[in-house]
Amino acid sequence: MDFNQRIEASEDGEKVHLYATVIIPPAGPGSSGVSTVSGETRASAGGDEGAALQVQGYRPVAGLGYYKFHALPLTWYGALKTCYTEAAQLAVIGSEAEAAALRRLFQEHPSVPGAHYDYAAFMGASDLEHEGVYVTVDDVPLQDAGYLRWQDGQPNNYGRGDSPGQDCIAMTRQAEYFDVECYIKLPFICERRLDG
Question: Class assignment of domain 62-193?
Fold first, then answer.
């Protein structure tokens, strides 16, 4: 693996661009096996984008896409940015099959050190723009996303004193949604869909 970096000054401060070249065994005749991975996923191993995603830690789920469980807890905003820099998005459950796949992925991590809740992972939905109106990172109403299963008593927008309410969505290990504060640190799941 070969890493390069470029530092560039701007009005906002310094920006660091990291580039990695990963050598993947050729997929077949005429394949170079070289993939450059930066802020965007590039084709590799004979045009197989899936191979490049797997190098980045994404796991394929047949018929759905590629998923990566991030066990280093971040805030919802940090999780959103991390997925974006991986040319992905925070996961949004669109079907019972996808919920089952994410449950299995989460079960592989029975404990998550440093997480505010050990039983939850951030998902790609919030009611940050309009209280009580949950929208996915795709700007689709959550109830129209194909899957909506709230944990009992949720959403409850529970606030503590002067703290803000709960505007971000997390998923339990049973793939039930509940609302949480956006600034707590949780693990999260990024996804790259097959259709996009």
Answer: alpha beta
